[in-house]
Please model this.
Amino acid sequence: MRLSHPSAPFQGIPPEDVFFATNDRYVQMGMGLTVLSMQPELYPEKPLQIYVYIDAQPSARDLLLGALIGRSEQLRAMYPHLKGRIYTEVSPNQWEMLNFYNRNGFANTDAEEEFVFQLPQVPPQPPMGCQFASVPLQTVQDQQAFLQRLNAYRMTPIGLDYLTLQMQQPYFMALGYYRGDQPMAEMLVTGASPETATLAMLYVRQEYRRRGIARALLGSCAGILRERGTAQMITHIHSRNEPQTGLMRSLGGVRRRIVTILPAIEIT
Model:
């Protein structure tokens, strides 16, 4: 079995972060890649996030994982004082891959989960001195600026194509609290019907957290949705993200399913 790098970036990923495995007859047996990202807003105590991905025949997986872990250690060495994790993403029904990662030291400490929650009934109490308003999205520049703010708080970025598509949905809303011209918190809601209204994204800037602003913003949005026949919303959260899980508990959210499992090796 042999490993090689592509001669040029692969799907925008540097060649040194991509590995191809071939057998002794040079038949490709699979590939793997690693992507480094910083998530100081989502995981302030462990911002270093190194994602690894393998798509390979069973005979090539161990070799590829070894190469990816080695490359991850090189990336980690660039930030010796930061904590984080090396992680991957596995569908709940991919038991073979889940067992493979667990056997190699990855622990199932995080997952993306789908929750459903009733719209808040308590009148919102917005922060003093702020304005509740729609996010300006009239121009492409406005849309890109909004996405940049949202994606600072996400593991996987929202693209312009996705936003453009959602803006055509009947239950699309982009709302926020603002102080002056600076956002304190913003949210993206979408859906084709009252039954499928979805909280796609909500963030609160770090200096405004632990003040009930996320719940208040949801309450401000709930009044609009309730007038349009919506009683509940769907959302996805990460199980190890305390602000997200805390918000779901406060809203009485009910977990409907596990979307993906995120096995990880902790970087301490």
In short: The chain has two domains: 2-87, 120-230. The radius of gyration is 21 Å.
